Amino acid sequence: MPKNSKAVKRELDDDVTESVRDLLSNEDTCDDSFKKSSLIVGGAGGDGEGKDLNGDMDVEDGGSDAEDDAARPAWNSKLQYILAQVGFSVGLGNVWRFPYLCQKNGGGAYLVPYLILLIVIGIPLFFLELSVGQRIRRGSIGVWNYISPRLGGIGFASCVVCFFVALYYNVIIGWSLFYFSQSFQQPLPWHECPLVKNKTTTYVVPECEKSSATTYYWYREALNISDSISESGGLNWRMTICLLAAWSMVCLAMIKGIQSSGKVMYFSSLFPYVVLICFLVRALLLKGSVDGIRHMFTPKLEIMLEAKVWREAATQVFFALGLGFGGVIAFSSYNKRDNNCHFDAVLVSFINFFTSVLATLVVFAVLGFKANIMNGKCVALNTKKIVGLLGNEISRDLIPHHINLSATVSAEDYQQMTEIIRGVTEKDYHLGSCSIEEELNKAVQGTGLAFIAFTEAMTHFPASPFWSVMFFLMLVNLGLGSMFGTIEGIITPLVDTFKVRKEFLTVGVCLLAFFIGLLFVQRSGNYWVAMFDDYSATLPLLIVVILENVAVAWVYGTDKFFEDLKDMLGFTPFRFYYYMWKYVTPLLLILLLGSSVIQLGMTPPSYSAWIKDLANEKSLSYPPWGLVVCISLVVMAIMPVPVVFFLRYFNIIDENAGVVSTISYKKGCIIQEIARPEEEDDASLIHAKSPSPMPGNSIYRKQNGGVPDSAPNGRYGIGYLMADMPDMPESDL
């Protein structure tokens, strides 16, 4: 060997080192073939084993966050992201569902099972969805297809459920917009029953006289409802316009993705809290509000032992956080990969809980005020009856001397007076009990709370139009915040999967949803809303979340997932989550699913219909075609899961399509694309193209600082991801 051979070798090595360094450092000046080159990601099999969540991650960890932001939209700030998640999770259910459940299931005692189940089910599953979205940086379709191609139908099922929910949820926003538009009047249009005038007399509309002014306005003026779901009655043109306005708002806010909706979140997420606090302060200054709050938080501990209470608490936790919709995954996919999503999960979950408690305080403070007014009217009416009976059937001596029947009689004096009369005469005289407790026990929820009970209470507020405007504007904002997350759960997975323009897809989805949504603005539309609310989401979402849990904990592997979380977060999450994900939450979710199925089986499908002649609600069974629609909603929502599984299992769709895929990187970011066959030659390495994938091949990457990870064959990565090449001579590199 020549004595200068070492020098020659050193010069050659230096040239190679310099050429590689120049190649990597001057990527932006290279031609397009280098800027966007393909890389085959090898996997061990279709079930997702043999790969980890790093496989579709950073191309070059150093500066990857800044480079990745150029390829995928990102939140402008952490606050914007938190507001988006809060806006999605805090919705109409916090205002009109949680207070009802609290009252129905033991008052303050209901908060105990709710809080326990929030910690055991809610936070672990919320953390799981945030983690997979942030790590894989895809929507629900891409995430679950990546973890296990055979379970790829989970993402499609989430999209279908999101679409079903969006159809009727935006109708509720339309109703709120209608009431908002009608609130700029003094007095409010639902303040009193309308009068009918003819040539000789003036009388109150019978339907209103039999019910109440707010009930009549809701069913007849706003909805103009038919007597059953079979009577469509044609379109309600006013609600059609409101629905168009609601979808226009959603479309304009979502058309640019998080760049446009993120800015709207500052108002739509924060404004409801301003209104709730204002309502609470105002309600506490009204007579009777303390009675409502006392009634609310008086614990009935014996009810806590009932299984139904725990089931309803678990269901409320499940839906309050928006689990299974895909919106949580979509929002978190726009995060930086080193974001502390565990902190986010805990923070958003407890914000949601305290929002529910705040809304409950407001609702029962206002309902306490309303109950006090209703009780006063009851006392006044029955006092007139007693005055009419004095001297004939009731002796004046039975009336306590301190009670002045010619003045306003208090509720306490009325109770004392009626007890004496009933005790001495042993007759009832059809005198009502006039109890505030009985008024408060008339549990209402949903539209009955928002559009009837609450609106009636506001008519007694000083400056009632102002409070009505604030209340319905709050409902609109609560609804929009949830709608943004729901639509993002549809748009993001489809854009990631099919590479369509987000603007065109958003407009298309909103137009399609509006035209299908015309079903809900018929005169029978309220019954369709109830049907979709009962059957389109509950069972399908439970199944989706169970499969999500199983996919991560048992298919992908809890241990492997913990390693990914440690790499992403910089610390190992509490061992508590390991046992929750692997054992506790799947078991509890299966029990919840079983109890929900049993409940549906024991209660035949029915709906509450407003009967005009009776001026009252009546429970009716769905017609045969209605039962078919109910079943079809459940089947259509969950059908993608078995369809994709069998297509993958029988290789009708190549099972490797979800595992071995072409990855393009541009400016240091990798973006999944459709695989394209390339010539397999030695030059492919220079262009970052690997030969045909081989079983067991995997991607490895250089870690931040220090010594890079060892590849499976004992070699080291060189900065950019490269496929492992078994038995390849070192000189070929």
TrEMBL record:
Subcellular location per the Swiss-Prot or TrEMBL entry: Membrane
Positions that bind Na(+) 2: 352
Membrane topology, record value: Multi-pass membrane protein
Keywords: Glycoprotein, Membrane, Metal-binding, Sodium, Symport, Transmembrane, Transmembrane helix, Transport
UniProt feature, compositional bias: Acidic residues: 55-68
One protein family per Pfam: SNF
Keyword Transmembrane helix tagged: yes
Primary location group: membrane
InterPro entries xrefs: Na/ntran_symport, Neutral_aa_SLC6, SNS_sf
Top-level taxon of origin: Eukaryota
GO molecular function list: metal ion binding; proline:sodium symporter activity
Residues at which Na(+) 1 binds: 87, 90, 94, 478, 482
Chain ranges passing through the membrane: 81-99, 111-132, 153-180, 235-255, 264-285, 313-334, 346-367, 466-492, 504-523, 535-556, 576-602, 622-647
BP-aspect Gene Ontology terms: L-leucine transport
SUPFAM superfamilies from the UniProt entry: SNF-like
CC annotations in GO: plasma membrane
Renumbered residue ranges of the record's region Disordered: 40-69
Family affiliation: Belongs to the sodium:neurotransmitter symporter (SNF) (TC 2.A.22) family.
Listed name of the protein: Transporter
